[in-house]
Amino acid sequence: DQQVKQNSPSLSVQEGRISILNCDYTNSMFDYFLWYKKYPAEGPTFLISISSIKDKNEDGRFTVFLNKSAKHLSLHIVPSQPGDSAVYFCAASESGTSYDKVIFGPGTSLSVIP
Amino acid sequence: DTAVSQTPKYLVTQMGNDKSIKCEQNLGHDTMYWYKQDSKKFLKIMFSYNNKELIINETVPNRFSPKSPDKAHLNLHINSLELGDSAVYFCASSPIGGTDISYEQYFGPGTRLTVT
Question: Is residue A14 over pLDDT 90?
Fold first, then answer.
C-alpha cells in the first residue's frame, strides 16, 4: 500500500524553465513533508521540507507547496539548471520526530536539458 | 570529510552466507537509520536507533540485526542471506532525536548487496 505516490516516473525540462514535481499522499495523519534529491551512486540529500501548518516554503530556487485538503504537494524549481538533473523523492511522516518513520515515494527522475 | 560513511560500497556474496555492513557518522547526530532500496527503487525504513536505543523496528526478517556500539555507529548484520536480500542499503543519521522535530536525514552513499 503506497502511502506516498509520485505518479510521474520521469520529467524532462528545458534549462531556465520551471520544473514542477508532484506528490500525493493517502495518510491524513502525515504532518511533515520533505523532498530529497539523489544523484546516481550517491545517497539522497535533503532539499527542502514543509510542515502542515504552512502551505508554502521557499529556499532559493526551490519552493514546496502543500495542499492538505487535496493531500498533494509539489516542488517547484525555477529556473531549472542542468545540475538539477537527479531523482527527486517526496517523503512524509506523521510527526517529523525520530519516533515516526519517514515514508518515501518512488521518486521522479528529472532531466534538465541544456 | 565524509559525514555518513558506509563500508563496503559493494558486496557480492552467495546465498546462505552471513555478512555485515558498517555505518559511521561524524556529525554528532543522536539518531541513525537503515533503509533498503529495492528493485522498484522504493526507500523503506528498516530500523532506527536514538542514542543506541532501538526506536523503529519495521517488519524485517529476524535474519537482519542492527547493532549500535555507540551513537556514531550503526552496523547491520544479515544472516543466511537470500536472493531477495539483494538491494541497496542506505544508512542515515539525523541531528535531533527524541520528540523534537528531526528535520532532515543525512544519508550515506549506499551499499549495493548482490546475493547469488
Answer: yes
In a domain, A10, yes or no: yes
Q: Is B55 near chain A, with CB under 8 Å?
A: yes
* Mean pLDDT (whole number) for B59-88: 93
Cα A113 to chain centroid distance, Å, stands at 20
Minimum CA–CA partner of A103 in chain B = B44
Q: What is the CATH number of the domain that holds A79?
A: 2.60.40.10
The pLDDT of residue B97 is above 60: no
Instruction: State how many domains chain B has.
Output: 1
Interface of A with B (CB under 8 A): 32, 34, 36, 41-46, 49, 51, 87, 89, 95-99, 101-104, 106-107
The CA-atom distances, in angstroms, between A35 and each of A56, A66, B49, B105 are 13, 12, 22, 11
Q: Is residue A14 part of a domain?
A: yes
